[in-house]
Amino acid sequence: MMRYFQVSERQHVLLEEYKENLRKIVRHLEECSPTMLIVLITPPPIDEEGRQQYATSVYGEKAMTALERTNEVAGNYGQRCKKRRAGRKTIASCA
Fold first, then answer.
1. 11 in helix, strand or coil?
2. CA distances from 86 to 28, 40, 48, 56 (A)
3. I want to staple 74 with a disulfide (CB 3.0 to 4.6 A). Which of 6, 43, 65, 85 is the partner?
4. How remote is the C-alpha of 2 from its chain's centroid?
5. pLDDT digits over 7-49, tens only?
6. Which positions carry the signal peptide feature in this UniProt record (predicted)?
7. Radius of gyration of the chain (CA)
8. How far apart are CA 45 and CA 70, in angstroms?
9. How far apart are CA 83 and CA 87, in angstroms?
């Protein structure tokens, strides 16, 4: 049985893979239209306490104690997104 807070390997993208995917996407868009303004949106903040409370309310003692999504991890992906825009016609927005 899969619990709400269980991480699926299919859903998680490693930070370096995320960086490479983002690079490929931006490069493709730039090739399609050199004048295009590209807007990159960083991952949104995580309501860690709310996610934990929800898991506990649904699964009780079986709820995982360590969240799979945290502001620290989301911040790492956000920083990669912001670094991607350097020297390009892109805007990185904090969600």
1. coil
2. 17, 12, 30, 42
3. 43
4. 22
5. 555 567 889 998 899 889 988 988 999 888 888 888 888 899 9
6. none
7. 17
8. 8
9. 9
